[in-house]
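Notebook entry, structure prediction.
Reason for the run: the old model in the group folder had no record of what sequence produced it. Starting over properly, with the input documented here first.
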Amino acid sequence: MNTTDGHPINARNKASYLEAKAAFNAGELDRCLAFYAREHRLMSPPAPPGREQIRAFLEGTLAAWPDLRLEVAQVVAEDAWVMGRSVATATHTTAFMGLPPTGKQLVTTFWDLHQFDEAGLIVQTWNLMDGLALVHQLGVISARMTLSP
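New structure, fully documented this time:
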């Protein structure tokens, strides 16, 4: 275990994760991207290595959801890994999945897993969003729909 005061790697990586989220929420993408290694790999969906891939992902996300806010609900750090669950809130102001803007405020859950290198930079990222909740709020599916065996 890497330690100087118990679990400094955990604390450092958790703090970096939270600072990156704060920078994203402030629209400060350059500050946010400073937490990512130059050869960062976005794993979901898989993308070629390079910080420009995460930049394109974040810019695309903000273009689709200009007022997006991520409220970190939980974050757990263990050695090189940080896992977070956030509540994402945004207004549907741009076309999404072929649907014209509705002006509805949408709320969904977002999970992300990051691997950090020894320098404390994010080298790999996996993202997962509750897309079912999102399409339900957009009216694509009804609340009465159920999965059949």
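Summary: The domain at 8-137 is CATH 3.10.450.50 (Nuclear Transport Factor 2; Chain: A,).
The old model has been moved to the deprecated folder.
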